[in-house]
Write a structure and sequence with these properties.
Blueprint lengths: L2 E9 L4 H11 L11 E11 L3 H13 L4 E6 L2 E2 L6 E8 L1 H11 L15 E6 L3 H10 L4 E6 L1 E7 L5 E8 L16
Antiparallel strand pairs: 1-2, 1-8, 3-5, 3-7, 4-5, 5-6, 8-9
Length: 185
């Protein structure tokens, strides 16, 4: 049975996703090209391909019961010294993220977490201390507000790039037929 790596996340809309991606690239983050800016709901999880229909139905049900909410990203923070990460924290939307992630991580996606859930957008990871300090200073006044419309199922390809597979819009319980693949909302 072949396993594939999946994750679930809130994507960051434009123009902020390009802006955050650009910062990550400028800072020299080795993960910049393979991980789009996001707020994680389910960290990388290995699943057998035959589980995918049940996983997608579970995610559809979770999204159908939710409604859009506001997310406000502001400033910078770090997980150092525990982990070499600088991130943009949420000033608004934390409890919404916590609620949705707790629902996502049930049923076919039930799994323990290595760390307590802390919604954030990573901007620098696995860099030396000087680069992490630069990231912390460069984005300390960062500010973005937007509406979260739903979440996305991602799969990591053979090159290590996380690719969106399917969007799960909030409140979609009454939609006829199957959900559209990623990018069609």
């Amino acid at each position: 049975m072949a396993l594939r790596d999946f994750g679930v996340a809130f994507g960051i809309p434009e123009p902020w996703t390009s802006e955050l991606q650009s910062w990550r690239e400028r800072l020299g983050d080795p993960n910049a090209g393979g991980i789009p800016p996001h707020v994680t709901l389910l960290p990388p999880t290995a699943l057998p391909e035959e589980a995918l229909p049940d996983v997608e139905e579970h995610l559809r049900q979770v999204a159908a019961a939710e409604r859009p909410f506001s997310m406000h990203l502001h400033g910078t923070a770090t997980f150092r010294p525990v982990s070499p990460v600088v991130f943009v924290p949420l000033a608004e939307g934390v409890s919404d993220c916590q609620r949705v992630q707790s629902k996502v991580r049930t049923g076919p996606l039930a799994r323990p977490l290595s760390f307590a859930y802390h919604p954030h957008v990573t901007v620098a990871h696995d860099l030396d201390e000087q680069a992490l300090d630069e990231a912390f200073r460069a984005l300390e006044d960062y500010d973005a507000c937007f509406t979260v419309w739903g979440f996305t199922l991602f799969e990591q390809d053979r090159q290590g790039i996380w690719r969106p597979q399917r969007d799960f819009p909030f409140g979609a319980a009454g939609l006829p037929g199957p959900l559209e693949p990623h990018g069609h909302r």
